[in-house]
Amino acid sequence: MSVLDAELELSDAQAVTSTAASTNTIDLGQVAPNLGKGGVPLYLVVEVSVAATADGSATLDLAVQDSADNSSFANIHTVPQIAVAALTAGARLMTFTIPLTHRQYVRLNYTIGTGPLTAGNFKAYLTTAPN
Question: How far apart are CA 105 and CA 9, in angstroms?
Fold first, then answer.
C-alpha cells in the first residue's frame, strides 16, 4: 500500500471538460532542482478518476510543464491524442519520469481537442513508487 502526500498532487479528481492547467502547481523548492542527487527517480502519474464522455469524438492531450517563475510554462513532455473512448475510469494515461534537471515549478496541462468533454475527472501526482 502506498501513501499519497497532498503536497505532491497536481490534480485530485479534477473535472476537466475544456483545456485547463492542473489545479495545483508543485514548487520543487529550488531554482534548478537536480533530482538525481538522491538517486531515487520521481514519476508523474496521471489516471482517470471518472470516465470522460463527449458528444463527439473528443481527444485529450497531456503536457508536463515546468517554469522558473510560476507564470511562463514550457512543455517538457507531451502525450498527444488520447481518444475519449480510452478515458475510462481507472485508466492510467501516463507514467513519466521527471527529468533529473528541470525548472522549479511543475504542472500538468490538459488540452481537449475536438471537444468539449461533457464529463471526466483526472488525478495526477508525483511519486517515487509508480506501481
Answer: 13
